Amino acid sequence: MSTAVPTNIRSLRRHRQWSQEHLAEQAGLSPTTVGKAERGGQVTTATLHAIARALEVSTSDLYSDRAITPRLDAQPDHHALARLRAVITPPVGITGTPLLEEAAAEGPVDLEAIATAVQRIETSYRGDRYDDVAEMLPSVIAEAHRAVAELETDQAYRTRAVALQMAGRYLTQVRMLSDALAALRASIRDAATAGDRTLAAVAINGQGWALTRQGRLAECVRLCTATADEVEPRMSTAGSSELAAWGNLHFRAAAAAIRDNDPDGAKEHMQMADAAASALGREVDSWATFGPLTMALKQAEFALIRDEPDLTLELAERLPDRRRVGDVTPINWERHHLDVAHAQVRTGDIDAATRTMTQVMQRSPEWMRRQNEAYQVVADMCEARPKRISPQVATLAAHLGVAA
Asked: pTM value?
């Protein structure tokens, strides 16, 4: 093991103010194994992968002789998270009944008002205002709990399912993955209670995203494949929401498969997803969005994962016309630009990558801080020109906390 590895692990852990026990929990390892890694003992590559994922850096970063600094401002508001956890996974009393705080709202339950509030939260989420999302969600979910308790109707369960999906999206984005999975499991149960298989499938797609971020790739493929088989629509008669949910499940399975070194499995799932996108003909809201443009962006991303950066840039130049097929969410659009910047670095065009990354930072500064790929791209840019880093690259490095 490189002598830099134990130092980097220890430094990153202390910077987060984590104990060895907490790092072990986040990485799915034993404290003894983490201690051994920090002492420079022999550990497997799989162990280093798990530690790197938990610390939100690449495994290669652990071997670096330069100082690795995690994104300083990427952590969510933990006070708001405590309130959110209280409504997603409330404590349970001796009778087995969840101990929920009483909702602040008074008067009759208004399902339409709850749905409107969730839409406002989604607007904040898409606008990169994560603190607002964390602040607003707890009271909305608490009111959704009250709606279910008082009404016990299918629509009340659907309304709460959608609110819990929004919580799952936010929590996955800020990498609170255990909390995200708890919210999404609750959403799936509510959708199933309401008999809404499409709504449940959308939440399962989100569950697949969280599993992928946890490195549970095979589980994601199995889950999304089994669900897609359950909800497979008849192309000639299916509604747009059914097609989008089914296509998104196949895309999610493909994304996990290609990261798990299964290109043939990924190709098969992408063919199914492409069929759904072609049948739709335009972008449709489903978790985020799904349609021809989404699939084109993901094809460019997958080319990068296969180490074909030239193809990524080529595909990025011939995307479907957004005026014709509709647009993706700002988050997915920015993620595509990170892929483009990554491809530009790999092909040696540091100036183009600098322009791309600067534009992403200007549009979505807070979102950018939470993206491992952004950190890796800027670190690679610094390494490419260690003695003549431009002011623009220095600004990017300072924004992300990369040691230039």
From this structure: 0.78
